[in-house]
Amino acid sequence: MKALAKKNLADALALLAGQATVWVPAKVAGVTRFAPWSPAVTLDLEATPPAVSPKEILLPETESLYRYSAYGMDVTFEAVEQEVPPTIIWGIHSCDVQAILCQDDVFLSREPQDAAYAKRRAATTLVALACTTPGPDCFCTSMGLEPAEHASTDVQLHILTDGYGVEARTARGEEIVARLAEKGLLVETIEPPAKAQACTRAVNPEGIDKKLVEMFEHPYWDELAATCLNCGACTFLCPTCHCFDLTDHRRNAHEGTKIRCWDACMFTEYTVMAGGHNPRPGKKERVRQRFMHKLRYFPERYGKWQCTGCGRCVARCPVHIEITDVIKEVGEVTLDG
Amino acid sequence: MSALSPKSGSPADCAVTEGHVGLPVLDPPPTAAPDTGKTKNGEWQPYIVGFACNWCTYAGADLAGLSRMQYPPNMRLVRVPCSGRVNPQFVLRAFQKGADAVLVAGCHPGDCHYGTGNYFTRRRFLLMQRLLTFMGVDPRRFQARWISGSEAPKFRDVVTELTEQVRPLGPNRLWREVEP
Amino acid sequence: MKELHNVNVAMRTLARELLESGTVAGVYGWKKGSRPTLTSPLYIQDAAKADRLAYDQYAVSNLSALLLDHRNNDKKRAIFVKGCDSRGVVRLLQDQQITPEQVLVIGLPCPGMVDEAGSLLTKCAECRFPNPVMADQVLGGVEVSKQPSAPTGVTAEAARKVGVGSRAGERMAQVAQLEGKTAAEKEAYWAEQHDKCIRCYACRNVCPACNCRDCIFDTEKKGWVSKAATSSANAFFAITRAMHVAGRCVDCGECERVCPMDIPIMTVNRKLQQDIEALFGPYDAGVDETVVPPLGRYQTDDPEEFL
Ligand code: SF4
Ligand code: SF4
Ligand code: SF4
Ligand code: SF4
Ligand code: SF4
Ligand code: FES
């Protein structure tokens, strides 16, 4: 296997940053999140996982779609063309690679594809980094993932004593590896990559997608939802949550820009319809939707869990509503209740 | 966007909303936020939003106009029923929409048409001024004054003084709203 | 925590009695979470579940804002409170979001809350009201007090030992440190913090002072606020939130604790508290229900700077 020594990491990133925007996990104002690499960036490759997922790279929290103007009958539209540079996400973990596959399912697998997402996704190369020491809330193995590697990344980095084992998995990945090799940044090694420690949390989701079909009216949701604040912490931190709202950036009564920004099924006004009716009027309906979506509707539709076990929602829910508990408890409750 | 530019709002037509179909008439000030920092003869001019209470300051401004007093044309007045009507969001929204400074003005304490509105105004904005300063806003950019209906000269002086205070500070970019 | 053993037993007994007798329709308390170092909010309506109640030095959540879920419901709910939590209940009562008939407040002695690593929370080191400021009943011998006071009840000694209230005098240290910076530095600091905000509204939703039925940030279609998470819209949110709780914030620190982006929200709340005291005299929000918050009243001889 080829290896990139730790001391060459900065050179490797600098080399790649010459031709692409290279997103790396970094400390930004005290929070670990992905940031475009520059020599000024403080890398934080130890965070498992980074507090903020790389979701925002492919699905920005806010983006402009088109500009409009309407003066009387004189109405015009003009698309906002986003510049999409070649993009590399460096140091993404298995959970977040899997999350991108979920996003692909949503935005690309059926017609019509989401144009803005498609464009960014096509320009993106994933360089995954093995996770050997899972964080306190990780449970990706329970969701069927392998912290040490992911099959659907372009390049997989393995942890070595003093660097990273570099393994290309796609033609795109080969290209990156070739460029690093060309500059003499890679060496051959026979050192076996470090093994991943077991995930801290373990649950067994097997069969709960089927069980949830019978649980729409189960009293379980009442109790679970009673302490939820209906905030957006869980969904906004989640790498697979993809709901958005289309709204306006108004310049005046006539002109503005249609923007898309993240929205969350946990918000009270998320399902409010014109006229005021809210089909999900209470906490119970909203909390149920979140878990039903992740553990039943999504698997039904796309054949995979919409939870990758990254543990972010577990770590930051203000009232400790933990999806690991939900998986466990849904597995345990009796259905006739 | 050339098709739009001739029609886009400028501060001059602030109060005018053309007839149109299906859109709200009452909307935030029509200027696109990035358009502020207007120039006159190539020179940057401060854009100041003033919230004036209907019963005193607005009357004072009216009187200044009737008396043909000369003062800088940099302030756009927004008439409010009472200075107590001005909430923190008005001030922030003005900055977002491109104001370089904001003035809140009303009756002298004791003279509020509604008796006590401006006593609350005073507390609210004494506090908010300090908060904005804490966040790095130059205190000259956010001020409050009591100007009665008969104080046309004071109105003139306040506008003149504020304009001259803000001019050296240059355009305010903090919190300016831009297209995402 | 052994000092709290009997309190835990008493909590469960009381909750069971209250639910069985129909005195209350539900009880807000805490349960043990998925780790020994987590104690999470719990709401029970069924007396059989009273045994799940638990209270210890990890029960950091302030449950008072959850009472807002029942503001349109006449039934009574019981709520267990620490000192800081009780101020949240007073906030809701004073703002007439709930009536005294809708709530039964049970005061608990507070041992001082610690994080998962075991260190005392800053808010607890700076705490001035470790005892409930109001309660219909108390457990563990805690004394109700509307004055800044030392911890009382069965955990008084433990609380003193870990340093509850020991840094009450330094509450404004972070504010003072920022005030010492230049305008440009302040602007840069807050811009960086506001940029981080993801507009999840956890800070708002956990807050007993943020109790508007229709929050301005949920009425986006009216055109005042933007859902865009831009620097400008985030700052608008942060400052609006701060001004809306000015003089009403009960200093529970929940907003800052729950913020997933670790934005120093308490620094802003404290700055406002400090200025309110300097301008309008001493005031502790959520302590005495009969004293109107400072921005809701005035004095004719308030400081005059607008002449
Ligand atoms: S639901 Fe929670 S644990 Fe699962 S992917 Fe989303 S944030 Fe991660
Ligand atoms: S589950 Fe937790 S993070 Fe999610 S909305 Fe409810 S309180 Fe917020
Ligand atoms: S702030 Fe005071 S009352 Fe609240 S948890 Fe800390 S020590 Fe206890
Ligand atoms: S603003 Fe923060 S500290 Fe103040 S009452 Fe609300 S949650 Fe508590
Ligand atoms: S909790 Fe933090 S990130 Fe969420 S809205 Fe409040 S300040 Fe923003
Ligand atoms: S009416 Fe002028 S300040 Fe109230």
TrEMBL record, chain A:
GO terms for molecular function: iron-sulfur cluster binding; metal ion binding. InterPro entries: 4Fe4S_Fe-S-bd, 4Fe4S_Fe_S_CS, Helical_ferredxn. Keywords: Iron, Iron-sulfur, Metal-binding. It holds the Pfam family Fer4_22. PROSITE patterns: 4FE4S_FER_1 (PS00198), 4FE4S_FER_2 (PS51379). Residues 217-249, 297-326 form the 4Fe-4S ferredoxin-type domain. Gene3D superfamilies: Alpha-helical ferredoxin. The keyword Cell membrane does not apply. The keyword 4Fe-4S does not apply. It comes from the Bacteria. This is 4Fe-4S dicluster protein.
Automatic annotation (TrEMBL), chain B:
InterPro entries: MvhD/FlpD (IPR003813). Pfam families: FlpD (PF02662). Residues 48-170 form the F420-non-reducing hydrogenase iron-sulfur subunit D domain. Keywords: Iron, Iron-sulfur, Metal-binding, Oxidoreductase. One of its GO terms (molecular function) is iron-sulfur cluster binding. This is Coenzyme F420-reducing hydrogenase delta subunit. It comes from Heliophilum fasciatum. The lineage of its organism: Bacteria, Bacillati, Bacillota, Clostridia, Eubacteriales.
Automatic annotation (TrEMBL), chain C:
Keywords: Iron, Iron-sulfur, Metal-binding. Residues 187-218, 240-269 form the 4Fe-4S ferredoxin-type domain. PROSITE patterns: 4FE4S_FER_1, 4FE4S_FER_2. It comes from the Bacteria. The keyword Ribonucleoprotein does not apply. GO terms for molecular function: iron-sulfur cluster binding; metal ion binding. It holds the Pfam family Fer4_8. This is 4Fe-4S dicluster protein. It comes from Heliophilum fasciatum.
